[in-house]
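re: ur question from yesterday

yeah so i grabbed the chain u mentioned. its 177 aa long if i counted rite. heres the sequnce exactly as i have it in my notes:
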Amino acid sequence: MTVPVELNVEDTRWGDLVPLADAAVDATLRHLGHDPTGFAVSVLACDDTRIRALNARFRGQDKATNVLSWPAEDLSSDIDGANPAPPDPGAPDDPVELGDIALAHETCAREAAEQGKRLKDHATHLVVHSVLHLLGYDHERPADAHLMEETETLILAQMGIADPYAGLDGPIDGTEP
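ran it thru and got these structure tokens back, copy pasting raw so excuse formatting
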């Protein structure tokens, strides 16, 4: 059994994201030693218009971005490069909500095309990246960024997806370096 992913599809161009989101969330939690059955994540599959409004409202940036995440709890470490605090799991019949993720179709599709990647692989990376944010990982400080990127790369490799940072410069989620 995998982690419960609640998917809200506002933009049907995403198709069925449930298998992709389930696999990405499950792989991330398992890689970090967590039982996925004790956690839940909500994913909004939207368009650039919707994510732009969310980005303006929650981050004060009036522009579209590829992905946003809202952790239910701050698990981040005060020490640059240290692992975040582990979340307390729930039970399969009462999982703990890790938080919410929103993906914007146009931006994700454009980035995938520009980077020569399959949209499915790019979206999987963005879900893994966002789940790590929900778990307290970040890329604001240098050692934190290294830890997060290294963790993402290992998880994606286990899923058969190439290093998403090869040839890129900077974070992938629209935040400023």
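noticed a couple things. The mean pLDDT is 93. also The CA atoms of residues 55 and 177 lie 17 Å apart.
anyway ttyl
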